[in-house]
Fold this sequence. Notes:
The complex is a heterodimer.
Chain A: H1 11-36, E1 38-42, E2 45-48, H2 52-58, H3 63-96, H4 104-112, H5 119-129, H6 136-143, H7 154-182, H8 186-194, H9 199-227, H10 231-236, H11 248-258, H12 262-296
Antiparallel strand pairs in A: 1-2
Helix pairs in contact in A: 1-12, 2-3, 2-12, 3-7, 3-9, 7-9, 9-12, 11-12
Chain B: E1 6-14, E2 25-34, E3 39-43, H1 50-58, E4 65-70, E5 73-74, E6 85-88, H2 100-110, H3 115-129, H4 144-156, E7 163-167, H5 175-192, E8 195-200, H6 203-209, E9 212-217, E10 220-225, H7 227-232, H8 237-242, E11 249-252, E12 254-262, E13 265-273, E14 282-286, E15 291-294, E16 300-309, E17 314-320, E18 323-329, E19 339-344, E20 350-353, E21 356-358
Parallel strand pairs in B: 3-8, 3-9, 6-7, 7-8
Antiparallel strand pairs in B: 1-2, 1-4, 4-5, 9-10, 11-14, 12-13, 14-20, 15-19, 16-17, 16-19, 17-18, 20-21
Helix pairs in contact in B: 2-3, 2-4, 3-4
Amino acid sequence: MNNKVLNNRAWFFVLPVLLIVLFSALLPLMTVINYSVQDTIGPNAFFWNGAGWFRDVLDPTTPIGANFAGALKRNLVFSAIILVIEVPLGIAISLCMPRKGWKVGPTLVVVALPLLIPYNVVGTIWQVFARNDIGLFGYAINALGIDYNYSLGPTSAWITVIIMDVWHWTSLVVLLCFAGLKAIPDAFYQAARIDGASRWSIFVNIELPKLRRVLVIAILLRFMASFMIYTEPFVLTGGGPGNATTFISIDLVNMALGQLLLGQSAALSLIYELIILAICWIFYTAVTHFEQREWTRE
Amino acid sequence: MPGGRITLDGIGHSYAGPGASEKDYALHPMHHVWEQGVSYALLGPSGCGKTTLLNIISGLVTPSEGRLFFGDRDVTYLPTEKRNIAQVFQFPVIYDTMTVAQNLAFPLKNRGMPADRIKIRVGEVAELLGLTGDLARRARGLTADAKQKISLGRGLVREDVSAVLFDEPLTVIDPGLKWELRSKLRQVHRALDLLMIYVTHDQVEALTFADRVVVMKDGRVLQIGTPVELFERPEHTFVGYFIGSPGMNLLAAEVKGDHARIGGQEIKLAADYASLPSNVPIQIGIRPDHAMLAPDGKGVRVRVERIDDLGRTRLARVTVDGQNLIATVPPDLAVPSGEAGVILDPRRIHVYANDRRVEGAVR
């Protein structure tokens, strides 16, 4: 017997959301797609350009393509460095945090503080803090006899951008891991003590496996955000010295708003987005596939 | 070195720290000796201090007062991992990264046992718990039952322990499997001559598992005895009430010499209670099994309120002088309604002064 009542009026409940999504996401995105396949010769005179802009962006022999290739490489290196530093550091800090008692609250507030600071303020803080004339950090490093100047030396600039991001975002990994650690029942630690497990063994056999899920989330979030980084390096170095810290987003803004190359910028935006989507998808699929295999392994 | 006895010398614990008031104690100071080779059950309602006591023995909790001895050795401040204690918890604890065999081998490996001996021992324990076929599998994909078996296995795998402690280990296990595992545990106990302490709030589990049952309430031990002793001579009204289903009937009464008086009716007792303390509540207790419903005019006069047919037996809920009493209905008795009698076996009646059993003088 089929007692299911077919009532298509239910769609009316979904309609408002569809409209909002349409205006907030789909229409702007369609505009970008529109620009990416057209060229213009004057006000409101557009004509079809096919995949021309995409070819430009992806061809490293064109100036735009060369810029993009360089920026892409910098982005990938930057994200890799960020993940390699922030994930282990975040785990380590979360392991050191108190999990019970009155200290939990204050510790969480202190740890979460950097996350509450607006991006451009973070950039400004480090812009001043790392200056070698009036900034404490820059002055101290120079006083140690180390040649450091983020507005002249590409290495100094990179180190500053990385430290800035680690300072700003490691807390996110810490908070996620802390939540994961809090979720481990006491009995696991008690059993480990009964079994005579070492601290390292507890970390490898209990804590790390239980953190797996939150680490997947942490890595995804940190990858996406670091790959899209814009504001902090823009405020700190403006992409310099030269183009040492010109990431894709900075390059894109220069093209779209500085040079008004709308078609190329639109094509680049779409490619940028697809790269992020693809990497996240590959990572997530690999992780879930790996888990699936582990579960069924005899 | 199978470790001998475990002595609690004035062990008590208050989570509030030193200087705690009487009611802060999770466990009131107590003396007790746990003998080697005996299986004990710690029985009591939730929050009575059973788990605290267990964790003090294993060292997961350091008692706020008293001293703990394994044999002659003072271990009060010795950390858990240095004590020779195995403990199994209420919910399964397994190491996700390892196979079943590696899980079972973990406590032995951490203590530096040679690999060939580990292999033999793991094989034995797996055989005992029916895990042999799963040894090579990853532990994380298994069912809750199987995971708890692994936890039990890790508790039993070490042969050199002073004691194995179980903290309600069969809670997550399927009822059918429960019986099987409990009898396996008894079997292990007989084979290894170990001290085992088993925490539970299920009286059936306690009475079937243990040689001796320790009944606890509000952080105090009320009685330690064999299942038969607990059933036949409860030393405290709570033990009478908690053991047995339904529990013991307790009736407020006046006791003079070898008679008890409830309302206007006299009940004969088997012993003489000449020197009962005054100014404390006096109760008589009798198990429903020893109170028989009878036609009106025999025994104590009662009012029948309800008959519960349990299939195998029938229980009559009656009142005597406004107090509730449960009596067994003999199989051949036509159930009287309204007024009836209850015959109480005088030798089975206990007298309690201030909840403690008083031993009468038998003439």
